Structure to design on (467 residues):
């Protein structure tokens, strides 16, 4: 049996503010109450409810606490599918809407042609569904839909 | 499906005693193909839109009388796991009977909840849904490789109020300092109640394992009860029909904990039988009558045993 990792998650208010600032600058997502960010490994941002975070010191870390919502870099946050679904609803910019055909391809993990003046990470919608977060550059929308979440019948 | 002739005689005899004049209905129902169920994950989509999307996928959904987010599905339901809606976490495939223990536990959004045997997380994700992602849940399971599927399901369902722990539940009371408002012990068991959905599990070897499993179950309920706040509620559940894994375990707790009392679970719309107050030569506490035995011929689900226990102040 593989043993759980015991490394603690970092809860650091300064870093958390930095993540909120990035989300606001990138997508216009405001700071939301009741959530805490944790850093797992070097880049993974996990989001956890404030109440649950108070128990962290007593619960040895197994890698699965809270919701994996994004990859951190000092200049930008790349949201995961579930991160985009949870936080994307508060976004005011960097939002794009796909057609049914585009959505199908994108959900399969394929990059698609998408002419738009926006650049960088975007929240991807089809109709009322948030499908995840993509990256736009030079007329191409890259997909980060993980293999395990690509539907056979998109 | 399982034919009556395939039931080992030792099982048959006890089912006849347990079911009495309902035995024939019981056998008839376990010979039916299993029903299929889903839960609409209201953490990601509201129930109404979830139903509308099912319609678009040609899946018919009949609401369960006892749970507004639970549905029996038919039609194109086998395709559901391959759809975009499923990938987005709008639905969770969960046996109808398995939705009952969290309902009996009835957690509130501000509660601190412990799910002692949580993997792969059907009930943890349901608890999080019932709590609207608020409060906090500690989801524990001893088997680390099962923690991976628990983590996957928590992620898929968008759960943010849960911490995952990998410990032997029997020793947890010495490992964490907290006391919980609600404790769920969905105990490891012989799964003898899964006759319809998993007939291959129906083996005489399981019968021989009962004693060992009972020792583990007693250890888990003792530890879980210790972790409960005074005034808090604990649900002990199994998908087994054997009294040794059910009433006998609750009887053990009641005999050793004067502050433990049985409460009748309030699950409107559910048909159930009372718990047993004796089995073979053993007499159990009279209050075990207030436990629930859920049989397939009554609700078209797998069998479940559910006990709701309160820790007196
Ligand atoms: C019936 S299953 C739980 C199903 C789960 N509650 C759900 O709804 O998805 C029982 C679980 O107990 C776990 N288990 C067995 N022994 C344990 C122990 N000593 N402490 C904690 N968990 C244990 C098993 O690994 C298994 O995942």
């Amino acid at each position: 049996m593989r043993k759980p990792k015991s490394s603690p998650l970092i809860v650091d208010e300064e870093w958390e503010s930095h993540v909120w600032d990035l989300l606001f600058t990138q997508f216009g997502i405001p700071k939301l109450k009741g959530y805490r960010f944790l850093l797992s490994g070097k880049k993974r941002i996990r989001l956890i409810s404030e109440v649950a975070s108070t128990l962290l010191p007593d619960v040895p870390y197994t890698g699965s606490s809270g919701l994996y919502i994004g990859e951190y870099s000092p200049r930008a946050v790349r949201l995961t599918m579930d991160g985009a679904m949870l936080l994307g609803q508060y976004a005011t910019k960097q939002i794009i809407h796909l057609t049914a055909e585009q959505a199908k391809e994108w959900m399969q993990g394929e990059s698609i042609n998408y002419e738009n003046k926006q650049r960088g990470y975007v929240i991807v919608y089809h109709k009322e569904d948030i499908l995840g977060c993509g990256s736009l550059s030079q007329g191409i929308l890259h997909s980060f839909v993980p293999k395990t979440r690509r539907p056979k019948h998109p | 499906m399982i034919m009556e002739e395939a039931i080992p005689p030792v099982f048959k005899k006890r089912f006849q005693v347990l079911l009495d004049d309902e035995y024939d209905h019981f056998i008839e129902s376990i010979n039916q193909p299993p029903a299929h169920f889903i839960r609409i994950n209201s953490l990601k989509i509201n129930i109404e839109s979830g139903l509308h999307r099912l319609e678009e996928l040609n899946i018919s959904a009949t609401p369960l009388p006892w749970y507004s987010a639970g549905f029996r599905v038919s039609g194109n339901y086998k395709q559901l796991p391959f759809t975009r809606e499923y990938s987005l976490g709008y639905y969770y495939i969960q046996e109808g009977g398995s939705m009952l223990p969290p309902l009996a536990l009835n957690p509130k959004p501000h509660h601190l909840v412990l799910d002692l045997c949580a993997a792969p997380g059907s009930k943890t994700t349901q608890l999080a849904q019932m709590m609207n992602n608020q409060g906090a849940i500690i989801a524990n399971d001893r088997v680390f490789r099962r923690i991976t599927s628990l983590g996957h399901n928590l992620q898929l369902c968008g759960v943010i109020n849960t911490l995952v722990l990998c410990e032997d539940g029997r020793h947890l009371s010495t490992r964490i300092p907290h006391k919980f408002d609600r404790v769920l012990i969905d105990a490891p068991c012989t799964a003898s109640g899964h006759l319809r959905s998993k007939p291959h599990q129906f083996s005489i070897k399981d019968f021989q394992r009962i004693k060992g499993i009972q020792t583990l179950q007693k250890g888990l309920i003792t530890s879980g009860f210790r972790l409960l706040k005074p005034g808090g509620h604990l649900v002990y559940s199994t998908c087994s029909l054997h009294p040794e894994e059910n009433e006998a375990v609750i009887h053990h707790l009641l005999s050793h904990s004067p502050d433990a009392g049985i409460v009748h679970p309030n699950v409107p719309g559910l048909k159930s039988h009372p718990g047993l107050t004796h089995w073979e030569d053993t007499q159990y506490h009279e209050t075990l009558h207030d436990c629930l035995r859920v049989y397939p011929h009554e609700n078209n689900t797998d069998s479940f045993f559910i006990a709701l226990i309160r820790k007196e102040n």
The CA atoms of residues 179 and 227 of chain B lie 5 Å apart. Residues 97-311 of chain B form a domain with the Rossmann fold fold (CATH 3.40.50.150). Residues 204-226 of chain B form the longest helix (23 residues). Chain B has a mean pLDDT of 93.
